[in-house]
Amino acid sequence: MRAVYKKELRSSFTTMTGPVAIAVMLFIAGYMFRTYNLANGLSSVIYAVFNSSLIFYFVVPILSMRVFAEERRQRTDQLLFTAPVRLIEIILGKYFALVTVYTVPVLVLCTLPVVLRPLGGSTTALDYAGILVFFLMGCAYLSVGMFISTLTENLIVSAILNILFVAVTMMIHNAYSMISGTVFTSMIFFVVLSVLIGIAVYAMTGFYWLSLGVLTVLAAGSLILSYMESEFITASCEKILGILDFYSHFESFVYETFSLTDIVYFLSAIVVGIVLTHASIVRRRWN
Amino acid sequence: MIEVRNLTKRYGNHLAVDDLNFTIGKGKIYGFLGPNGAGKSTTMNIMTGYLAPSEGDVQIDGVSIVDMPEKAKARIGYLPEIPPLYTDMTVREYLGFAAELRKVPRRQIRERSDAVMTALSLHECADRLIRNLSKGFRQRVGLAQALVHDPETLILDEPMVGLDPKQIIEIREMIRDLGKTHTVILSSHILAEVSEICDTILILSGGKLRASGSPTELAMEQSREVVVTVTSPASEEKLLTALAPKLVNGKVRFSSGADGLVRAEITIGKEKIRENPELASDPRKFVSELLAQSSCPYYSVEVMRSSLEEIFLELTGEQEPDASPESGKERADESSL
Q1: Which of A36, B6, B70, B288 could pair covalently with B56 via S-S, beta carbons 3.0-4.6 A apart?
Q2: A234 pLDDT band (50/70/90 cuts)?
Q3: Structural domain boundaries in chain A
Q4: Is A79 close to B45, i.e. CB distance below 8 A?
């Protein structure tokens, strides 16, 4: 794990990736700090931190698009995966290197409340809790981004999928009422979801009829349920959408409420990303 | 020792490796020979643990690569077809990383990197970025990476592809040297490469093992004909009398070129080869001695198609390159002996 971690960290800083990612993050965070705290005189940095979440659109693809995609493209994965090292060690080595790069600007964010204090800022523990959640949210994005990079060896595709994921998780709360508002839209949502699951089953197993069967059963099930249990279907639609809703889990900290649920939420997202990365690489070995 | 048992690999409906069985002993050079798509790379990728087999197992010194991959992988050095190089590292950094990844003890990393760089004459480019190295040097760095943890077994996938003739000779010499202290398994689709440096050849085609053995054994077991051409200023009769008594059941075809020289295409039959297996790999000495004994002058003796080539072509199901009927146009007469 150490070897991979050191190599990844070194390559982040011998190429442009690390410095560019850090520069983008500091620029945006600095701009938000100037706007909210220095220009408008807010006493807490939480709004600046909250609005800095814009940086995920840039930083997540820059940092995580190449993690495994580039190894596959250059065939260097053959060195990693034939070494006497467990796969999880390779994954964690790479992941911790990503997190290390991302930690640099977050540490800079941590100095902002201190800077603000002589100017009349009111620093509370909750400011730091906000920064912590901001950090965990980024870690969750990097973890899922790492998984996305195992899906393709094309860096552009990897980057676009990463941006799409950030966009969906940041904006889905706006679409709640639109999708789960009526029984009809919820039903359509579940049919689309069934198709996606069918495609995923096909990609994982390669059995055409099995995937088609799963798709049909799920789609039929959602059609029947939406006629019989319309309330259930809208409620579960909202729940499923909620899984992808990074934004709302982050937002609660702005209202100065420390919520353990949200911290657990992001920690689980990190674990899910790592588990998916592992599964995706193992699957490639078997196919 | 490497044991491959019932190894099968399926990609969807395509069978890349089909129930492969063989054993690789210690301290020799083995060659996988087969046309492109024969399953050589897939087999090597499974043996090194990069891919998982659909069925079957590979045991390295009794340790299964499927059940205990970390332990088995530590005993192997692998150079894939495309050397897995990080082009933004220097050679020294890269070897240091490979050594650490392969669990070489921290204190020995420098020493091991230096040792392999010396062995493969890489010292002059130790601090250059791999990106800026020539293909030949990159191949050497790839080989160095496979050697850095001092494994007993080296698996090299097409180690000579894409190199120029001088580099091929250098790499071949390196492999031959390594073969004295390591078990080396290499793959190639070129017969001459394999028959030159390997002690044992495994011929693969369509994911199956078609034949195996030393070049001489293969030629003996499979016994094919060998074709030699002789260019000579002597008459056809003289050539016939010189060769006829010794070529049991052989054939001689004559054709005369514009330069007034006679070209004789001599086919040495299976029986003769079975009697004298060395003829299979190189019959030139035999033919030239026959000609010399009866003071028959000649300018050249060349092997058209060795017995091994015949075997290779037949086992891998490829068409003979020169089997078209018009190639017989020039042939004036044909006499059986």
Answers
A1: B6
A2: confident
A3: 2-172+245-286
A4: no
Residue A182: phi, psi to the nearest 5? -120, 165
| Closest chain A residue to the Cα of B75, Cα to Cα | A84
Domains of chain B: 2-220 (3.40.50.300), 223-336 (3.30.70.980)
By C-alpha distance, which of B194, B11, B196 is closest to B204?
A: B194
Inter-chain CB proximity B100 and A3 less than 8 Å: yes
Determine the 3-state secondary structure of A224 from DSSP.
helix
Higher pLDDT, A206 or B209: B209
How many pairs of residues across A and B have Cβ atoms under 8 Å apart? Answer: 71
Put simply, whether B129 touches A (Cβ < 8 Å) is: no
Residue-wise pLDDT tens digits, B82-116 = 999 999 999 999 999 999 999 999 999 999 999 99
Render pLDDT for A74-117 as a digit per residue (tens, 0 to 9). Answer: 999 999 999 999 999 999 999 999 999 999 999 999 998 888 88
Q: How far apart are CA B53 and CA B44, in angstroms?
A: 11
- The two tokens of residue B244 are 């006829």
Whether residue A81 and residue B100 make contact (CB cut-off 8 A), yes or no, is no
Q: Inspect the interface and report whether the beta carbons of A82 and B76 lie closer than 8 Å.
A: yes
Are A75 and B82 a contacting pair at CB < 8 A? yes
Average pLDDT score over residue span A157-186: 85
Query: Which residues of chain A neighbour B54 with C-beta distances below 8 Å?
Result: 286
**Across the strands, what pairs with B31?**
B186, B201
Q: Which residue of B has its CA nearest to A6?
A: B97
3-class SS of residue A246: helix
CA distance B214 to chain A (A): 29
Nearest residue to B157 (alpha-carbon basis) of B9, B28, B31, B15: B31
Query: If you measure CA to CA, which chain B residue comes closest to A80?
Result: B101
- B50 to A4: CB separation less than 8 angstroms, yes or no: no
- The predicted-structure confidence for A175-225, as pLDDT tens digits, reads as follows 777 777 778 888 888 888 888 888 888 877 777 888 888 888 988 888 888
CB contact under 8 A, B51 and A285: yes
Q: Using the 8-state DSSP alphabet, how is residue B247 labeled?
A: S
Confidence class of residue B306 from pLDDT cuts 50, 70 and 90? Answer: low
| Rounded Cα–Cα distance for residues A206 and B12 (Å) | 7
Nearest chain A CA: its distance from B38 CA (Å): 18
Q: What pLDDT sits at residue B32?
A: 92
Neighboring chain A residues of B11 at a CB cutoff of 8 Å:
287
Model pLDDT, residue A254? 76
pLDDT score of B305 more than 70: no
Q: Which of residues 31-70 of B touch A (CB under 8 A)?
A: 45, 48-52, 54, 69-70
The two beta strands, B183-188 and B153-156, are: parallel
Report the complex ipTM. 0.85
Strand, helix or coil at A271? helix
**Which pLDDT band, with edges at 50, 70 and 90, does B195 fall under?**
confident
Angle CA(B67)–CA(A275)–CA(A107) in degrees, nearest 5? 130
